[in-house]
Structures are given as C-alpha cells and as structure tokens.
Design a protein that fits this description.
This protein has a domain of 188 residues: 2-enoyl-CoA Hydratase, Chain A, domain 1 (Alpha-Beta Complex), CATH 3.90.226. The strands form 2 sheets. It has a 6-stranded parallel beta sheet, sandwiched between helices. It has a two-stranded antiparallel ribbon with strand order 6-7. By secondary structure, it is of the alpha/beta class. α3 runs parallel beside α4 and α4 runs parallel beside α5.
C-alpha cells in the first residue's frame, strides 16, 4: 500500500478555507489589463498639457495652411471655378494649372439634377485653351435651367469669353481683362483649303454663341477679333473692366458681393416662376 503525502493548499482538496478579510478593510477591485489599450502617456506625448481656445483640428489647419478653418455652412449656391488653362482632348504638361473639361461636364450635370442647389456661381480666371472643350462647357452652362452668374476675376481670355457670357448674368471686376482674338491652331497644320474652312466654321461657332448670349453685335465682335495694331504681334483686342461692359460683352462691373446678391434675387424669381407653373 502506497501512502501519498498531500500538502494542504487553499482551494485544493483537502480544502483549507482562506482566511476571511477584515470587515473594516475593503478589498481593492480587480483590475483587468487590456493589451490593446495604450497608456495615456504613450498615446499623447503632451499628457497633462491642455490647449485652450482652439481645437486640435483647428491647430492642425493653422499649421498646414496658415489659416483657421472656415465654418462649414449649407448653401443653396454652388461655386464653380474655372482657372488656368482649359484642357481638352490633349493632356497638358503637369506644371500647367488646368481645368479639365471631362471633370466639368459631369459636375454641371450633377448640379442641374441636385435639388438642394438652386443657383450656380461661376468664377473665371483663365487664359483660354481648347476651343471645343471650352465651347462645350459654355454650352452646358447656357443650357442650365437654374440661375447662373459668372464673375471674371483677373482674366477671362480667348475661349473664356464664351464661358463668361454663357451664364444668365455676367460680372467683371474693374481690373480684369478679356482678350478677343481669332482662333489659332498649334502644332503641325495641313496646308489645304479644308483646314482654313474648318477654322472659319469653328470661329463662326464661337462668334454666334457669344453674340447670342451677350449684348454685343456680331459686327462689333468681329471688329474686336480682327483689330490689328492694338497688341504686339496683332493677336487681337484686350478689354479691361468697364470696356467689356461698354461693348455689351459683359452685363455689369462688379465682384463677388454683387454676384451673390444678384444670384439670390434670380433664385427668388426662379422659385416664384416654378411655383406659378406648379399651380397652373
């Protein structure tokens, strides 16, 4: 017969009860360690320091762009910017600041369909670019049913002219300029009569669109387009601020404030017309 010596251990047979805690002493609660949770000191190197006045996101914005973030507001007016050179069927070099027409066209379609957008404000500062791409953007702006207002800041040259007048109402600042010149081709050109006919028809399209959506006559617009002696190399005519209004190309001289006030008035009129049509 084999005898096994068993040392008594608490909680193990043979059972020896553990001593009861002193009733006057409250046992410390059991603390569970979360392996995925990092200590506050590890998570924030500046633990204990408090930044007052600005949130962390505001401080990050100040560090990155040098300005405090603008409060987000819901607006019924969408701002559409057309800047740099209008890129068409050919991709321009990466150092060029461009507005891609394949981005603008679906955006304009979305603005026409969006119920929360009641007006479109177009900001232009462009040197021109691809004629057909610019004309396509201008045609889409002109065909929108919602109120549209354009503002020329800095410059709205070349094909930027039809885009500016494509809006239902147009503004230009005192110092902004617009260059009106004949259509030109870059690169290799085939010297045949058909090339000239193609350029002539494309030019007629630009002239017809501009005169249809502004107060300038075709005769005056062609005179500005083919005027020689005003600029080096005879590239056309430059109209600055009030001159564009006097020729009937732009509706009024003004900036962002005037444009926003105008589009708000147009939106109210547009709503009133829609309401009357619905009641009828």
């Amino acid at each position: 017969m084999t005898i096994i010596n068993v040392e008594p251990q608490p909680g193990v047979f043979p059972f020896t009860p553990s001593p009861y805690p002193d009733p006057e002493v409250t046992p410390a609660p059991e603390r569970r360690e979360d392996p995925d949770k990092k200590d506050d000191h590890d998570r924030d190197p500046q633990h204990g320091k408090r930044v007052s006045g600005k949130s962390k996101s505001s401080m990050e914005a100040m560090k990155e762009i040098g300005t405090a973030p603008i409060p987000e507001i819901k607006s019924n007016i969408h701002c559409l910017t057309i800047i740099g050179q209008i890129e068409g069927h050919l991709v321009l070099p990466p150092q060029n600041k461009t507005t891609k027409y394949e981005h603008m066209i679906p955006q304009l379609v979305a603005l026409e369909q969006a119920s929360e957008v009641e007006g479109v404000l177009i900001i232009l500062n462009t040197v021109g670019g691809d004629v057909e791409a610019g004309l396509a953007i201008a045609e889409m702006i002109a065909s929108m049913s919602k109120p549209t207002v354009s503002v020329v800041l800095g410059g709205g040259h070349s094909i930027g002219v039809p885009i500016a007048v494509g809006a239902q109402y147009s503004y230009i600042t005192d110092t902004a300029s617009m260059t009106i010149h004949p259509i030109r081709l870059n690169g290799m050109v085939i010297g045949v009569p058909q090339t000239y006919e193609y350029l002539d028809k494309m030019q007629d399209r630009v002239v017809r669109f501009t005169t249809m959506h502004s107060n300038i006559t075709e005769k005056n617009f062609r005179e500005l387009m083919f005027r020689t002696g005003d600029l080096a190399r005879d590239i056309g005519t430059v109209l600055i601020g009030k001159e564009a209004v006097e020729w009937g190309l732009i509706d009024a001289v003004g900036g962002i404030g005037e444009a926003v006030n105008k589009i708000n008035i147009m939106i109210e009129e547009w709503k009133h017309k829609r309401k009357e049509a619905f009641l009828q």
